[in-house]
Inverse folding.
């Protein structure tokens, strides 16, 4: 089916094109006309004067399309609020993300033609718009906040979570993560460094992968909070394990090498997640949970026979 709109694509038209392609007509082709007074006869017009799918009663074209096609997904309606504010800026809705989205589309329109600009929100909107069109995130630790937060927010947005709920959840996650750091030495003192590192990280990975699969907001929040109780225990135990594994004169070099390896590979995660998102927002996290669990099991298999000086007696008995 053919669709037509004005040339010079900006936020409302780009968002409408994404909505049409994603939820109405997957095979849509778009035409951009320089004279809105003469839309093609064989195309459905949108965001132009005199057509049904345009601004009406103070609503932007994105909102009109939602109403006409009876799209009721609460995530789409939250996106509509953001698009409305980015396009009209009339303070009808609370949408702090709107200025950022406006700037992104203005930048794209400066370097891309209309066809590319209208398609640019595709991958980003599938991810960022499906996460209530925002830049908000749910989180794991300070290194994987972008990955874990987006996943949790998707479940929350689909169940009508407010920004207040998200903020309170973030705060609770931060407190629980701090407590998990403090609890790690106590647990390691009783069961050892390697078991603490591996057997707190595995359930943390599985809980994270499960978040997008649960149907309700309380369940998603519960999984995130439970994960936060475990997610940081592997950090101090891993650092202590590496220090115990090597001679004192090699500890600085060992810390440098292990941290360098982590930071070099880290940028690949968001890139791969972005490539996988068109196949489903949960897919990157299911794959990540599986890979990280496999890593933990391989670590356990490789280092279980290694006896460290710190393993000969419980840490709590040492002075």
């Amino acid at each position: 089916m053919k669709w037509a709109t004005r040339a010079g694509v900006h936020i409302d038209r780009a968002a409408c094109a994404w909505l049409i392609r994603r939820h109405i007509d997957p095979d849509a082709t778009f035409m951009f006309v320089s004279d809105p007074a003469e839309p093609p006869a064989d195309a459905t017009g949108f965001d132009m004067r005199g057509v049904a799918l345009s601004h009406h009663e103070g609503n932007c074209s994105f909102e009109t399309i939602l109403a006409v096609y009876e799209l009721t997904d609460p995530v789409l309606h939250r996106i509509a609020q953001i698009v409305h504010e980015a396009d009209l800026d009339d303070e009808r809705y609370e949408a702090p993300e709107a200025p950022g989205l406006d700037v992104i589309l203005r930048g794209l329109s400066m370097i891309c033609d209309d066809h590319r600009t209208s398609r640019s929100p595709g991958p980003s909107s599938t991810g960022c718009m499906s996460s209530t069109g925002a830049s908000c995130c749910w989180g794991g630790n300070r290194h994987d906040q972008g990955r874990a937060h987006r996943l949790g927010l998707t479940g929350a947005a689909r169940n009508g979570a407010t920004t207040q709920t998200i903020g309170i959840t973030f705060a609770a996650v931060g407190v629980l993560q701090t407590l998990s750091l403090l609890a790690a030495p106590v647990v390691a003192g009783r069961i050892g460094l390697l078991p603490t590192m591996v057997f707190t990280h595995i359930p943390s990975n599985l809980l994270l992968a499960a978040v997008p699969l649960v149907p309700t907001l309380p369940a998603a929040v519960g999984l995130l909070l439970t994960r936060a109780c475990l997610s940081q225990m592997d950090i101090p135990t891993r650092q202590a394990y590496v220090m115990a594994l090597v001679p004192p004169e090699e500890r600085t070099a060992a810390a440098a090498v292990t941290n360098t390896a982590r930071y070099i590979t880290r940028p690949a995660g968001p890139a791969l997640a972005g490539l996988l998102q068109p196949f489903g927002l949960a897919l990157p996290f299911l794959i990540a949970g599986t890979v990280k669990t496999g890593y933990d099991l391989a670590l356990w298999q490789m280092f279980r026979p290694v006896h460290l000086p710190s393993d000969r007696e419980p840490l709590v008995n040492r002075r």
In short: Residues 2-129 form one domain. The radius of gyration is 25 Å.
